[in-house]
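Private note to self, pasted from the team thread so I don't lose it. Backbone tokens:
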């Protein structure tokens, strides 16, 4: 059977928690051959009438997100130590195109300009991360005051521009010295990390009220230690299990140390999530999709909210191999004030119980692809695929707006309607300044991507989800990890030769959305 038809059939048939695409709408007055018309005829597309009617509540926080390593550059300035990503990018052959992030977008020096641009786009929230090795060059000990001073000035600038500073404490750049002490599989890192978080809250907590301990902790553990797709590139299943447990302990210990140092602090998360749709309506596939959700989406959320891990494993959970000790439930338990997660794309999940072999795969931006031949690992035993029923972005992720609605409403239901922050969402397209149009960046595909995605977010809000913010990934094009500069996610184009910023058409459009709360 044709793959597209097969997926369509199996999805419609599957009866799990989140399923079924929305029909393709036809509207009048859409110009022939236009991108809008193309979108209408695309599987999974949102009806134009729904987009036109979409509204966001008064006071909704429109924002953008970045991460220190991806934008800052200045890799060894002002006493900064080496991070695992410095080591990775300085290793020949690791980064596509052979670039490094030594300069990246030079935001370390150009932050005032970038915050002014955010204001120009009517932004109200800026999610950024702090580089641990700028604060503690070897990961422990007294803070490097030059690092603190830098972020202090940066925060003042954000506030002057009317931006809410949303701080991610760790977005993947572990001090290399801590990797040499064993990295995240070493349980001691939970304590070092809580000290680091406490330092930040003590010195910067007068201006930061919203903290997310980790960006995508599952990826830190699995892609960094389980399959070696991200720095520090270790591929050992036990290391993955141990790293995951250390991260769960660290998340809770950090929450406590932040709150002890700053009475204004609220703590939540920035988890990477993909709605999981069972491949068929078999009980086995539905159970596999539930395991995917438990492992990839809510593993760390459950740990914080309930002090226990969700049912991600077939049979007895491998607590010994994870290094779980008696009393850890109490340590892990640290209910979050709000729940933050990203949405980029979805997964189709099937049972892989017959497959016992652990195997890796390729990195697709937010997710590791299971090896189709061998399945995933001996415990979770599911196979997760990114379907291609909808179109793919240039960065290779399927466009599936409905996934936003399904994920947001699912998390709302499962966690009793928490306050939700969408911490990242965006798409990779390579559009560049076009000379014939005075250097404009006409990135119509990105505009259409956000229109569709946001219409589905608005529908979730109308249906009761308490979403208070949306952070587009990203304010500016930046260094996309192992893919270097070969992918562009920004609303603002960066010319890496001279650091010139050009607001893309999508940026101008997003600015209007922020001003009107409509998808104009
Ligand atoms: O660039 C990354 C970011 O660091 C984490 N979330 C996904 C983005 C796009 O791949």
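Design output:
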């Amino acid at each position: 059977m044709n793959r597209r038809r097969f997926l369509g059939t199996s999805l419609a048939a599957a009866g799990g928690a989140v399923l079924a695409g929305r029909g393709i709408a036809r509207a009048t007055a859409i110009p022939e051959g236009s991108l809008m018309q193309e979108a209408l005829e695309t599987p999974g597309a949102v009806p134009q009438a729904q987009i036109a009617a979409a509204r966001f509540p008064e006071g909704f926080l429109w924002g953008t997100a970045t991460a220190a390593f991806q934008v800052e550059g200045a890799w060894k300035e002002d006493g900064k130590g080496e991070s695992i990503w410095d080591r990775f990018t300085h290793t020949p052959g690791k980064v596509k195109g052979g670039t490094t992030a030594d300069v990246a977008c030079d935001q370390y020096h150009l932050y005032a300009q970038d915050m002014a641009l955010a204001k120009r786009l009517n932004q109200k929230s800026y999610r950024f991360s702090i580089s641990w090795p700028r604060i503690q060059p070897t990961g422990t000990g007294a803070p490097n005051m030059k690092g603190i001073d830098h972020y202090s000035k940066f925060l003042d600038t954000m506030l002057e521009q009317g931006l809410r500073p949303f701080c991610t404490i760790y977005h993947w750049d572990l001090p290399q010295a801590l990797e040499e002490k064993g990295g995240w599989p070493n349980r001691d890192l939970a304590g070092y990390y809580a000290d680091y978080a406490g330092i930040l809250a003590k010195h910067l907590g007068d201006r930061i009220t919203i903290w997310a301990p980790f960006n995508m902790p599952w990826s830190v553990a699995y892609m960094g230690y389980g399959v070696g797709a991200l720095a520090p590139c270790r591929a050992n299943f036990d290391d993955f299990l141990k790293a995951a447990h250390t991260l769960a302990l660290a998340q809770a210990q950090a929450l406590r140390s932040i709150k002890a140092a700053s009475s204004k602090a609220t703590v939540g998360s920035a988890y990477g999530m993909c709605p999981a749709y069972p491949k068929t309506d078999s009980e086995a596939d539905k159970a596999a999709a539930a395991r995917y959700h438990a492992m990839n989406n809510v593993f760390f959320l459950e740990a914080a909210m309930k002090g226990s891990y969700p049912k991600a494993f077939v049979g007895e959970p491998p607590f010994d191999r994870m290094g779980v000790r008696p009393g850890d439930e109490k340590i892990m338990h640290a209910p979050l004030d709000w729940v933050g997660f990203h949405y980029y794309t979805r997964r189709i999940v099937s049972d892989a119980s017959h497959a016992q072999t652990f195997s890796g795969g390729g990195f697709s931006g937010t997710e590791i692809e299971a090896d189709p031949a061998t399945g995933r690992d001996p415990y979770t035993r599911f196979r997760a695929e990114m379907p291609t029923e909808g179109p793919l972005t240039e960065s290779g992720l399927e466009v599936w707006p409905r996934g936003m609605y399904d994920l947001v409403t699912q998390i709302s239901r499962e966690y009793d309607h928490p306050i939700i922050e969408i911490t990242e969402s965006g798409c990779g397209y390579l559009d560049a300044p076009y000379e014939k149009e005075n250097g404009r960046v006409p990135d119509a595909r990105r505009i259409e991507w956000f229109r569709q995605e946001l219409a589905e977010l608005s529908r979730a809000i109308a249906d009761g989800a308490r979403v208070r913010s949306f952070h587009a990934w990203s304010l500016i094009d930046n260094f996309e990890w192992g893919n270097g500069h070969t992918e562009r996610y920004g609303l603002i184009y960066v010319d890496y030769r001279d650091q010139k910023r050009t607001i893309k058409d999508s940026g101008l459009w997003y600015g209007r959305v922020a001003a009107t709360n409509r998808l104009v």
